[in-house]
Write a structure and sequence with these properties.
Blueprint: H1 2-8, E1 13-23, H2 26-41, E2 46-53, E3 57-59, E4 62-73, H3 75-86, E5 90-95, H4 103-150, E6 155-156, H5 157-164, H6 168-180, E7 184-187, E8 190-193, H7 195-202
Antiparallel strand pairs: 1-4, 1-5, 2-4, 3-4, 6-8, 7-8
Helix pairs in contact: 3-4
Length: 203
């Protein structure tokens, strides 16, 4: 009865929503999608009328699945909030076919949208700065490990990979940078500190 009343309310929107999840392992993808749906069910302004789950499929070494839901959502503002919170891949408004918006509603909609976009922008910028900081520190740490290891004597590339825990292709980037900076030198795939760096290490 409650769902029928909500579905008949002219201020509400009846929609078809598709939410996709991609990742691994398979069990995590299934669990993540189920948690999304459970969280939606907790919101009294989001009513799921029915949900159709797709089988989990492997895509490029990842697992993918989705759920298609028919929902009733309380108004345009709530629909926009839902889109930001759950990032659906598809939204289709079934009813009403027409929706009248007065000026104040449009202004509120735009302001709410702008506010949420600013929040997203702040999160992205913060994450970007944190990633840049971590990347810089990680790069410095790897360079230091290489230099400290070579201060004990000459080491070939294979053993440097074992010491640093970095794959050969990625390690080569650091080695080339250190050679360019004249910190280390290479002879027949064996690396050592340049003379000045050896003297500094011994001091």
């Amino acid at each position: 009865m409650q769902e029928e009343n909500i579905a008949n309310d002219k201020s509400h929107l009846r929609c078809k929503i598709i939410i996709e999840v991609l990742g691994k392992p398979k069990e995590h993808v299934e669990k993540a999608l189920a948690q999304y749906v459970d969280k939606i069910k907790e919101d009294p302004e989001l009513i799921i009328l029915n949900a159709d789950y797709a089988d989990v499929k492997e895509v490029d070494d990842l697992w993918s699945t989705f759920v298609e839901m028919e929902m009733v959502i309380k108004g345009i503002k709530k629909l926009i909030a839902f889109c930001f919170d759950y990032m659906p891949s598809s939204v289709q408004i079934i009813k009403p076919e027409q929706y009248n918006l007065d000026r104040s509603m449009v202004e509120n909609f735009i302001n709410d949208l702008q506010g949420r976009l600013h929040q997203v922008d702040m999160v992205v910028k913060k994450q970007k700065n944190e990633n840049a900081f971590l990347k810089k520190n990680m790069n410095s740490a790897i360079r230091n490990v290489i230099m400290i290891s070579l201060s004990r004597g000459k080491i070939d590339e294979e053993n440097l990979c074992k010491i640093t825990g970095v794959q050969k292709k990625e390690l080569r980037v650091f080695l080339d940078e250190l050679i360019k900076d004249k910190k280390i030198e290479e002879k027949e795939n064996v690396f050592s500190l340049v003379r000045e760096e050896v003297e500094n290490a011994q001091e």
